[in-house]
Amino acid sequence: MKLYNLIYSLTLLLLVETSASQQQQQQSLQVAFQKQSVVIEKPAIVNYRLHGRFLHITDIHLDKHYLEGATIKSDCHRAPHKHKKKKKRQGKLAGYWGAPGTDCDSPRRLVHHAIDTIARDWKDKIDFILWTGDNARHDGDVKLTRTKKEILGYNKKVTQLIQKAFTLDNNRTLPIVPCIGNNDVHPHNQLRGMKNNPQLLEYSQLWSDFIPQDQQKHFRKGGYFASDVVPGAIRVLSLNSLYFFGSNDIVSTCSDPTSPGYQHVQWMKKQLKKARQENMKVLIIGHVPPTVKTFKDSCLDDYIKLSTKYADLIIGHMYGHSNMDHFQIISRKYSDVARLSKEEDDDDDNDDGEEEGSTVEWIQKDADRFISTLHKQYRKLQKIRDREDLVVIHVAPPMLPLFYPTFRINEYNADMTSSHFGDWLRYTQWYSNLTYWNEQVDNQKQQQLLTQASNKEPWHTKPEFEIEYSTDETYNMTDLTSSSWFEFAERISSKEGHDLWKVYLSNMFVQSNNDWYGQSLPEDDHDDQDDDQNNENERMPFILPLPAMAWFDWLKQKAFLFAEMLL
User: Helices 548-566 and 498-508, interaxial angle, to 10°?
Assistant: First the structure.
């Protein structure tokens, strides 16, 4: 009997231990599975239909001081002086909808109308919005300098306009990804790398609906963040290009471990590594584009290194700032591509940070050099066969009517079952000919005077946007991968692509060669010469006092002739 009780007790003890061991194993398996599920996370299910399109807008430059009828010399801020004895000499004055071809910024009515029009026509057809900075006016009027409060006020206003306009019927706001421009800080170009930077704190609050909660700490620290615009599939890295910007001389280079630029690069590296682990596609956006002219050398090198290492993930690099519609090819390995214009840029006396295409004065002075350098860059590509170290940078034209106001509708592969999901397929560039729409307002005002009608503002005469070009129909591009841009660069810089080069230049300046100026163009008498020769005439300086739009027309004519010389 004692033996039986002993065996029974041992059996019960063995059963208890076995049960405890099984429970412990199950718990270990659950913990291991949970850990594994953190690493191997399935993409989130998108509970709405993807359209395969996204909007890119940039460089709005709202100006509350814009005054219709003001002088261009005053940045469209002050009416012309009236003289009692002298006959009034009236030149070109600020138009109702803006002053294209001048250094004046965007009137409020243009910004309101443009945003509302784009939203009306596209908000139900796009998946997200890229918004690449410079919402505040320039600081060109010495009699009306900008303040921190004014700059933040412009950004608040534009943020409210965009957020309200792109709210869908189901009360869902489209994903919007903004970034800081060099004119969105005070003083312009300069942003300190410091803990609790007050300007970054203000923008973190202003854009709290756009910046994910887990990215707020990164934005408050450095002005950059990541946003999943298509959950589990496409991530946008919104960069703070001011920490890479050569004109921001209050921060050091990216090779300095204490600099905000270095910290920014480390954040980029972590984000791209994380995107690869999660099988995400990535769009990189910023305001100032990475070029030898704009970025600090070490920052540019780091940017290119990361971009080439993670090229398989990156859909595209999309920027603003330079105003001219173009793309550049940068590289660390091939100095004849990446550093092509370095020697020319080093002796440039423009040190105020307002580079390529930012003012009419710059266009009159330096755009011919920029275009010829760009043509060289494209042509040099023909000699390069190993292109894995090349990066294509895209610069969209502005809503600011330096030329004509624009916006860009991009299309991508939205089939989430496809191995090519996220591939950039094409874009369509839209613009509005403000010269025409200003004339319509003027005509209606004259009609009102003749008919003695009530003096009401002609709000019914509002600008319409039209297609300027599309990459598939105009450029015959089947997609917008890097290899397609390389092929396009070769094509427009070749002898056979001369006519397409002309089209490309017209698009670069947003069709701003208005026929009604009627200016004659000078003839070119240069002989053909090889593009590798060091020729002083290559600069081809401007010498005639033409109106602003005629400058653009002549500029393109000169660029065409220069291309013919190279060919």
Answer: 150
Closest CA to 396 of 458, 345, 469: 469
For domain 53-78+91-430, the CATH architecture is: 4-Layer Sandwich (3.60)
Measured CA to CA, the distance from residue 206 to residue 174 in angstroms comes to 17
Please check whether residue 131 is in contact with residue 87, taking contact to mean a CB–CB distance below 8 angstroms.
no
Give CA–CA dist 202/199, Å, rounded. Answer: 5
- Going 116 to 122 to 128 to 133, the CA torsion angle's sign is negative
How far is it, in rounded angstroms, from Cα 411 to Cα 424?
6
Residue ranges, the chain, pLDDT below 70: 1-47, 83-91, 334-359, 362-364, 452-460, 513-567
What is the CB neighbour count within 10 angstroms for residue 448? 14
Give which of 188, 162, 180 is closest to 239, Cα–Cα.
Answer: 180
| Residue 152: closest CA among 166, 138, 135 | 135
**Each residue of 243-266: pLDDT tens digit?**
999 999 999 999 999 999 999 999
Are 165 and 119 in contact, with CB atoms under 8 Å apart?
Answer: yes
The dihedral through the CA atoms of 50, 56, 62, 66 has a sign that is: negative
Give the ranges where 40-147 is alpha helix by DSSP (H). 108-122
The tokens of 193 are what? Answer: 């790398």
Q: What angle do CA 118, 67, 358 make, to 5 degrees?
A: 65
AA letter at 117: T
471 touches 427 (CB < 8 A):
yes
What lies within 8 Å, CB to CB, of 174 at 6+ separation is 123, 126, 127, 128, 129, 166, 168
Rounded Cα gap, residues 180 and 197, in angstroms: 14
Is the pTM above the cut of 0.85?
Answer: no
* pLDDT tens per residue, range 80-101: 987 545 444 456 899 999 999 9
| Residue keyed to tokens 């319409």 | 464
Q: Where are the domains of the chain?
A: 53-78+91-430
> Among 394, 369, 392, 339, which residue's Cα sits nearest to residue 507?
394
User: How far is the C-alpha of 492 from the C-alpha of 499, rounded, in Å?
Assistant: 8
DSSP string, 273-299: HHHHHTT-EEEEE-SS---TTTB-HHH
